[in-house]
Design brief:
The chain is α+β, with helices and mostly antiparallel strands and about 325 residues long. It has helices spanning about 5-15, 30-40, 50-60, 65-85, 90, 95-105, 135-140, 150-160, 200-205, 210-215, 225-230, 235-240, 245-260, 265-280, 295-315; strands at about 120, 145, 165-170, 170-180, 185-190, 195.
Length: about 325
């Protein structure tokens, strides 16, 4: 790593630890790997998930107004606290009642959300439409997906003092909430009213191997660093979509370092290697014998790296999900 990259990463890390990355202007986004490394490597307990999510969204879409989104989040938290003010102090102080107030605020229509509850966008459940995974889009449309919906629940829950984090299933993200009173951790399905959801339901709905569960690929209560790596994944997707394959590989390595069992990142890394092979070799040379001698090693390295990334994902128990 060059000295300039080290300085950039250090500066970003300090800004994020202070909760100000999303509000910082003029950040150099020309080195995605350094940007993502700073985003995920925040000391435990110091992350601001709102700032992190908006930093990722802005990396993908520079037109996003982060200050407006943060102000709306602050307003939401204030409203939820007003809702809690209708309870007895003892009840309002419990994490379970605060979680229920958050759930009501998001998913039930009332004065607290101007009769406009947040809904699952059944027309785009995986968030494939451009910009649909961003937090500002979700706030504006009130229609979300399995990326934006758990992200907002996590952000608001954190600001309400709840013990919340993320977890995953194949092509899916959900929330883990730990009740302070009992120490029990619950799955909350953000795309369905944040209802309590058993592990068995996810295993039935989106089949996954026992090996993947045992290895922490799915259903794991993620650490702060692991959750931040999940939040940062749209950057990896964007780099691949825009043809920045070398940078995608570098970002994938940072995400894998943060969350080694993230098979999705390994698969995306393998995809980036294939795209490099396709762009620089397959499309340029009609036959294998046409490949110049000085490019054969490069081609073989890309092919080998592609196979290794997928092999590592499969060794963790990953299997290609079948979309409905």
């Amino acid at each position: 790593m060059t000295r300039s990259v080290i300085k950039l990463a250090t500066a970003l890390l300090l800004m994020l630890a202070a909760g100000s990355l999303a509000k910082a202007e003029g950040i150099d986004r020309s080195n995605p790997a350094a940007f993502v490394r700073a985003l995920v490597n925040v000391p435990d307990g110091r992350a601001d998930f709102a700032s992190a999510k908006l930093a990722v969204d802005t990396f993908v879409d520079r037109s996003i107004n982060e200050a407006t989104a943060l102000a709306e989040i602050d307003s939401m938290v204030a409203t939820i606290n007003k809702m809690l003010g209708t309870l007895t102090p003892d009840a309002a102080s419990t994490s379970m009642e605060r979680m229920k107030a958050l759930r009501t605020f998001l998913y039930e229509g009332g004065w607290w959300n101007n009769g406009r509850p947040f809904e699952y966008d059944l027309s785009d459940p995986y968030g494939q439409k451009p910009g649909s995974q961003s937090l500002p889009n979700y706030l504006a449309t009130r229609k979300g997906n399995c990326v934006s919906m758990p992200a907002l629940f996590l952000i608001l829950g954190e600001r309400l003092g709840l013990d919340v984090t993320l977890s995953t299933a194949p092509l899916h993200i959900f929330v883990k909430f730990t009740d302070d009173a009992t120490g029990k951790t619950w799955n909350l399905e953000a795309t369905s009213g944040a209802g309590f959801t058993r592990d068995a339901w996810y295993q039935q709905k989106v089949p996954m191997t026992d090996e993947a569960i045992a290895n922490g690929v799915y259903l794991k209560t993620l650490s702060q660093r692991e959750a931040l790596s999940i939040i940062a994944m749209p950057i990896l997707d964007d780099l691949i979509a825009t043809g920045r394959y070398d940078e995608a590989v570098a970002v994938a390595d940072v995400l894998i370092e943060a969350y080694p069992a993230n098979a999705y990142t390994l698969v995306k890394k393998g995809t980036a290697y294939y795209r490099l092979l396709d762009t620089n070799i397959i499309q340029k040379y009609r036959k294998q014998s046409d490949i110049p001698a000085d490019r054969i090693t490069y081609a073989n390295d890309l092919y080998r790296a592609n196979r290794e990334a997928f092999a590592k994902a499969e060794a963790l128990g990953w299997r290609e999900p079948k979309l409905n």
